[in-house]
Design a protein that fits this description.
- By secondary structure, this protein is α+β, with helices and mostly antiparallel strands.
- The protein folds into two domains: about 70 residues; about 50 residues, no CATH class.
- The chain has four helices and three strands, in the order ββαβααα.
- It has a three-stranded antiparallel sheet with strand order 2-1-3, sandwiched between helices.
- The radius of gyration is 27 Å and the shape is elongated.
Length: about 160
């Protein structure tokens, strides 16, 4: 595991992605990307691994600096380029002024989800019922045992005394 250079506190983390394998003209150990995030480094690394860029499949992440200054990303991109690193950064650390889609409230998300669920159910009702019946038939004994155990526990927890 690669250790971080700086352990200071800051809102953002400046990080480097490092190739852990030879890939095209990239050698194992090369710094291939400089980025900034407010997420955990593990979370950001996971995001990079799932993005479809033309870079090695095996990459590691190295914390360079904790900072409150977003412009430090551009500084480190230029620094590593001047050191001879062929970085795969597309925009040089300059964030385009792109208007983001407004975030949905939790209530709006629930409404959309319930509408989608209802639409899906109505479109696939017959197939869903067939699948449910097939599952119940195939797992009859398992379901009986589950219900038996569930109701035993339910009765034990009940405040009303119940006799068998």
């Amino acid at each position: 595991m690669i250790k971080s250079i700086d352990k200071g506190i800051g809102l953002y983390k400046i990080y480097a992605l490092i190739s852990l394998e030879d890939f095209n003209n990239i050698k194992k150990g090369d710094v291939i990307y400089i980025g900034i995030t407010s997420k955990t480094l593990g979370g950001r690394l996971s995001g990079h691994k799932h993005e479809h860029y033309n870079w090695p499949s095996k990459i590691g992440i190295l914390l360079i600096e904790n900072t409150d200054d977003k412009s430090r990303e551009s500084f480190f991109i230029n620094f590593f380029k001047n050191m001879g690193c062929e970085l795969l950064n597309i925009n040089g650390g300059i964030r385009p002024n792109v208007e983001k889609k407004p975030k949905l409230s939790e209530e709006e998300k629930k409404i959309i989800k319930s509408k989608k669920s209802k639409e899906y159910y109505l479109k696939n009702k017959e197939r869903l019922i067939e699948n449910m019946l097939r599952y119940q038939e195939k797992n009859k004994e398992k379901l009986k045992e589950y219900r038996r155990e569930y109701y035993k526990e339910y009765i034990k927890k009940s405040t009303i005394p119940y006799e068998y």
